[in-house]
Amino acid sequence: MVTQDELAIEIAEGERPDRPIMRMLRAIRRRIERRPGLRRAYRVAVAVLGSLIATVGLLLVPLPGPGWLIVFLGLAILGTEFAWAKRVAAFAKRQLARFWAWWQARRAVRPVAGD
């Protein structure tokens, strides 16, 4: 069993800024930022990909499966470039947490079938 402290250490290790992958991603991002045309194309690509993934997730919400997870993934992708997407994701997470708490309370009060 992994403790919370071990998990926190593992997460911190993965997010270290001196990791080769992080250095590579920062270098790519700097190159994109220096070229206005490339930056515009990158933002359009992020917008298209994030919107497509979020839309597919919304279509999957009524079905069994990871619909909301896919929506949040799309919003996370959009949030890398657009502040409004970060705000929408935060709002959606709060609303989903409220709904989940309501649902759990409702199920706790409802009598079990067969009693």
UniProtKB/TrEMBL annotation:
<dbReference type="InterPro" id="IPR019099">
    <property type="entry name" value="Uncharacterised_PGPGW_TM"/>
</dbReference>
<protein>
    <submittedName>
        <fullName>TIGR02611 family protein</fullName>
    </submittedName>
</protein>
<feature type="transmembrane region" description="Helical">
    <location>
        <begin position="41"/>
        <end position="61"/>
    </location>
</feature>
<dbReference type="InterPro" id="IPR013434">
    <property type="entry name" value="CHP02611"/>
</dbReference>
<feature type="transmembrane region" description="Helical">
    <location>
        <begin position="67"/>
        <end position="85"/>
    </location>
</feature>
<keyword id="KW-0472">Membrane</keyword>
<keyword id="KW-1133">Transmembrane helix</keyword>
<keyword id="KW-0812">Transmembrane</keyword>
<dbReference type="Pfam" id="PF09656">
    <property type="entry name" value="PGPGW"/>
</dbReference>
